[in-house]
């Protein structure tokens, strides 16, 4: 009997939405092939989960310590495997899940926990097997060969693209953007004459207001978007020929569409991804952006215009992804089902 899949992740204003969106990419790969349920906690921002998914919510009174027991009582380990993404799924959680009899795939980006999962996926181009401590049975699926990308982005990754001028910017700082870096980046871009149009994609948990006032003042230049479909997001990226984004899922997606990207990090889980993209010369160096001011964006963007290495960066981006990524993920999952 082929087992079904439990996709397990949380996301909200506090922890961001990245864990949810990474699992969405795997959901889209298995849809139509394997049965699944998407399980998230009651405290999550559940509105970002597609209504087309079979979704179950964990009651608020169930803590992470109780979760393995709750899962086993509601979803038999004989019928389901678990694919989990989130920092709460520590070594002790993994042990409990394994003791219940589940096969477990864990999506990781820190390489800090001892791993008891059957498979660990870390799509950072920086990470290597030596960074992990794990059980002998634990299989590691590392690097951009296992990039967590939705199908349309995987399709885009195969396409060629050349950039001859830079005049249209794409800005996105994730689901929450706690330091309002979107606003600072846009304030910088409108002070650089090269840019005639700025597309700003805001996350589902974005709470700041100033960006909308700025959009009203500069309505001919700035356009904000939120809750875009995969197809619409790609269209906006294709209209752009320069991007500012952190080293998170959005960086992988931009690299598939291909353009010069100024990137950095502002939380721990982005740093290893950032190092990997820098080592592959696929982005411009932004380093730690947590304390960035408008002047930092202006100075760095003006400096990269002097380098004019746009298409060599695009070639580096293209080299990170091949046409077997979805098949690799599906193979990993089917081995446990």
Descriptive overview:
The chain is α/β, with parallel strands linked by helices and 337 residues long. The chain has helices at residues 18-30, 67-74, 91-99, 151-157, 181-189, 210-217, 230-239, 249-257, 268-279, 294-307, 310-319, 325-336, and strands spanning 4-9, 36-41, 55-58, 80-85, 104-107, 114-115, 119-122, 133-134, 139-142, 168-172, 197-202, 222-226, 242-246, 261-265, 284-288. Strand 13 (242-246), helix 8 and strand 14 form a beta-alpha-beta unit. The protein is globular, with a radius of gyration of 20 Å.
Strand content: 15-25%
Radius of gyration: 20 Å
Helical stretch count? 12
Uncertain residue segments = none
The H/E string reads EHEEHEHEEEEEHEHEHEHEHEHEHHH
Outline: globular
Structural class: alpha/beta
Strand order of the largest sheet: 3-2-1-4-5-7-9
Question: What is the tally of beta strands?
Answer: 15
Query: Roughly how much helix do the residues carry, as a percent range?
Result: 25-40%
| First-last Cα distance | 8 Å
The residue-averaged pLDDT reads: 94
Give a short account of the largest sheet: 7 strands, parallel
């Amino acid at each position: 009997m082929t087992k079904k899949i439990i996709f397990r992740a949380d996301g909200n204003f506090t922890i961001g939405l990245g864990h949810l969106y990474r699992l969405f990419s795997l959901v889209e790969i298995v849809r139509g092939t394997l049965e699944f349920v998407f399980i998230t906690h009651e405290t999550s921002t559940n509105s970002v989960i597609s209504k087309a998914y079979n979704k179950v919510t964990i009651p608020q009174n169930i803590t992470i310590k109780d979760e393995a027991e709750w899962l086993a009582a509601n979803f038999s380990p004989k019928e389901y495997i678990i694919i989990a993404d989130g920092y709460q799924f520590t070594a002790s959680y993994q042990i409990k899940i394994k003791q219940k009899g589940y096969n477990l795939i864990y999506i990781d980006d820190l390489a800090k926990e001892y791993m008891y999962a059957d498979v660990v996926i870390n799509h950072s181009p920086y990470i290597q097997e030596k960074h992990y401590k794990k059980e002998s049975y634990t299989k590691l699926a590392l690097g951009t060969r296992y990039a967590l990308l939705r199908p349309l982005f995987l399709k885009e990754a195969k396409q060629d693209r050349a950039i001859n001028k830079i005049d249209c910017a794409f800005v996105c700082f994730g689901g929450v953007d706690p330091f309002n870096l979107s606003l600072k980046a846009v304030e910088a871009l409108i002070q650089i004459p090269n840019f005639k149009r700025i597309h700003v994609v805001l996350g589902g948990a974005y709470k700041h207001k100033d960006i909308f006032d700025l959009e009203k003042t500069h309505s001919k230049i700035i356009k904000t978007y939120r809750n875009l479909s995969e197809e619409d997001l790609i269209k906006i990226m294709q209209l752009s020929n320069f991007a500012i984004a952190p080293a998170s899922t959005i960086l992988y997606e931009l690299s598939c569409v291909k353009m010069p990207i100024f990137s950095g990090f502002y939380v721990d889980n982005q740093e290893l991804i950032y190092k990997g993209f820098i080592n592959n010369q696929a982005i411009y160096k932004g380093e730690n952006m947590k304390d960035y001011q408008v002047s930092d964006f202006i100075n760095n963007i003006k400096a990269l215009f002097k380098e004019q290495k746009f298409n060599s960066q695009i070639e580096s981006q293209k080299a990170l992804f091949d046409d077997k990524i979805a098949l690799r993920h599906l193979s990993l999952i089917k081995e446990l089902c």
